[in-house]
Design goal:
42% of the residues lie in helices and 8% in strands. It has 430 residues and is α/β, with parallel strands linked by helices. It folds into 2 domains: 238 residues, SGNH hydrolase (Rossmann fold, 3-Layer(aba) Sandwich), CATH 3.40.50.1110; 161 residues, no CATH class. The longest helix has 24 residues.
Length: 430
């Protein structure tokens, strides 16, 4: 338990700790290894002061410490808002701008859960009152929403490191005889957040013990639960300590600017999205060549990535024209073993794949339930056509479309742009 101390002394001690702490071992010259940091969550993520003003919070002090050691690549707390419950924190992830920033960040902190409790605390003449009957529903909501928040962040950027901030005891000015139930509630809240964080693949940052239950020097306003700068310094130091213990993930490289892909191209958004994920590359360093056909080898590599097909225990598929040294050998072997591609004497890796052939291998690779055509969906794809079941299956899932003239053009080559749109739609499937 921390006793009272002069707040100016506390500030000097914590400031010294922040600037002397050993932050992640990265070189200032290695831009890809620098910290690109996003702070999400409630008023603590924003930096609300004991007088309800907007100031410097733990994220500001942490980012300043990183910048002082030339380790900060970027920082924002623009998506954090005072008063957010765990449900509202989860909802912020629907923001496309935030999603874009998360894809190019490698560290994110979350403050989420306290307002689920505090919104159910009533202040009375005798101090705060909490209806314990509401506790199970509140705990369940935090577990569900926080877990979903972490999972959603990892779905946007699987490599990003997520740190979930713990909470301090918010009522140090209460008489000791009235603290006990709220101390237990605070500890319980932290246990729920810690358990949910660890179960979801995030790092929990403990705060409770660093503040203790008598931290009036960090929470000077009896009518306000927000810390002063000294308190935020304590939280920042805890975060940086946790950051020190983890290896910093690399930031994905920005996608190349293709000279032949203007922003108004019909498939621009899908191509650039897949480029950021590293799922598609240009035909050359500067050109995407959206209108040229996809080869069977190129499709095999992409489908292996999209279907998550592993490359262990490979069996040589026996194609005379695909040696083990071929760059697409692993993908071709994996998908042939899975039955996506049929065995034959030759694979013809450099032959352009048709729209009907692609429909067949996509259905097989993703193991989609086949929907036999009950009617002719496209004028040039009749019910007795060999590829109709595959084309109609993908059409029923909204993965492929025909042309405005009602045709599908099953024998036409699939272009790189068309394949990118199909791959994008596959990723959007539930």
């Amino acid at each position: 338990m921390r006793g009272l101390r002069n707040k100016s002394v506390a500030f000097v001690i914590m400031a010294a700790l922040l600037w002397s702490i050993v932050v992640p071992v990265v070189s200032a010259q290695e831009e890809s290894r620098m910290v690109h940091y996003i702070s999400l969550g409630d008023s603590l993520a924003v930096g609300v002061t004991p007088t309800n003003e907007l100031g410097n919070g733990y994220a500001d002090f942490a980012s300043a410490a990183l910048a002082g050691k030339d380790l900060l690549g970027s920082f924002t707390k623009e998506f954090a808002y005072p008063g957010l419950t765990s449900q509202k924190v989860l909802e912020t992830l629907a923001n496309p701008t935030l999603q874009e920033k998360l894809r190019t960040a490698n560290v994110v902190t979350i403050s989420s859960g306290a307002n689920d409790f505090l919104s159910n605390v009533t202040m009375t003449e005798n101090g705060p009152y909490f209806d314990m009957k509401k506790l199970p529903a509140i705990v369940s909501g935090i577990e569900t929403n926080l877990g979903a928040t972490i999972q959603a962040i990892h779905a946007i950027n699987p490599e990003i490191d997520v740190y979930v901030m713990g909470y301090y005891f918010p009522y140090p000015h209460l008489p000791d005889e009235k603290k006990a139930p709220f101390v237990e509630l605070s500890k319980g809240l932290n246990q729920v957040i810690e358990g949910t964080s660890e179960a979801s693949g995030a790092t929990f940052v403990p705060i409770f013990d660093a503040f203790g239950t008598n931290a009036r020097d960090f929470l000077p306003n009896p009518q306000n639960v927000h810390p002063n700068e000294a308190g935020y310094q304590v939280m920042a130091a805890a975060f940086l300590t946790a950051l020190e213990g983890n290896e910093l993930p690399e930031v994905p490289e920005a996608p190349p600017a293709y000279t032949d892909l203007p922003a108004d191209h019909w498939a621009y958004d899908q191509i650039m999205y897949l480029s950021k994920l590293g799922l598609v590359k240009g035909a050359t360093e500067s050109e995407f060549k959206p209108n040229i056909g996809m080869t069977r080898a190129e499709v095999a590599v992409m489908l292996a990535k999209l279907s998550g097909e592993g490359n262990t225990e490979l069996t040589d598929p026996g194609f005379k024209d695909v040696t083990k040294e071929h760059p697409a050998y692993q993908a071709i072997a994996s998908l042939t073993r899975k039955g996506v591609f049929s065995k034959a004497a030759n694979f013809n890796p450099n032959r352009t794949i048709t729209r009907a052939e692609l429909s067949k291998v996509v259905v097989r690779a993703l193991e989609l339930p086949q929907n036999p055509p009950s009617k002719v969906l496209f004028r040039d794809v009749h019910a007795n056509y060999w590829g109709s079941v595959y084309i109609n299956t993908l059409s029923s899932y909204g993965i492929v479309n025909g042309y405005t003239n009602g045709q599908f053009k099953p024998g036409a080559p699939i272009t790189r742009a068309e394949f990118s749109v199909i791959a994008f739609r596959v990723l959007q499937m539930d």
